[in-house]
Design brief:
About 0% of the residues lie in helices and about 30% in strands. By secondary structure, the protein is mainly β. It comes from marine sediment metagenome.
């Protein structure tokens, strides 16, 4: 589990997400406009009995050296993160939510301030999540 990084075309790999509260990853997005900006959505998005849940979204501004927890703690399972190709402060997060019960933090979330605040722009109900 976790997140691994290579800087030599896969000859060697370095784990860059070991010190976080969770190691289960649903999606990773790297900003096209600045590859030092990396977003990680935690929690496997596949619906099966052995799926592990996460605790929201993380962001690195230094290529994975350090991470900041950006919220959405109760999403549990992130299916997709999409970044604006010109502005990495704009991100969309598709949240599945709890796999085995209802919860409010489901749907498609959007931030325009780099994850400081989130708006749920596509919410159906507490039983319907969003994924890719």
């Amino acid at each position: 589990g976790g997140l691994w990084k290579t800087t030599n075309n896969g000859v060697t790999w370095e784990s860059v997400f070991d010190n976080q509260a969770t190691s289960t990853i649903g999606d990773v997005a790297v900003a096209l406009s600045n590859p030092e900006i990396v977003w990680v959505g935690t929690g496997e998005a596949n619906n099966r009995q052995s799926s592990s849940w996460g605790n929201g979204v993380y962001k690195s501004n230094d290529g994975g050296k350090t991470w900041i927890h950006m919220g959405l703690e109760d999403t549990h399972h992130v299916g997709r993160i999409v970044l604006d190709p010109y502005n990495p402060e704009v991100a969309y997060v598709a949240a599945v939510g709890h796999l085995w019960g209802p919860n409010q933090q489901r749907g498609l979330f959007k931030t325009t301030d780099g994850g400081e605040s989130w708006e749920n722009v596509l919410y159906v109900d507490e039983n319907t999540g969003c994924t890719d």
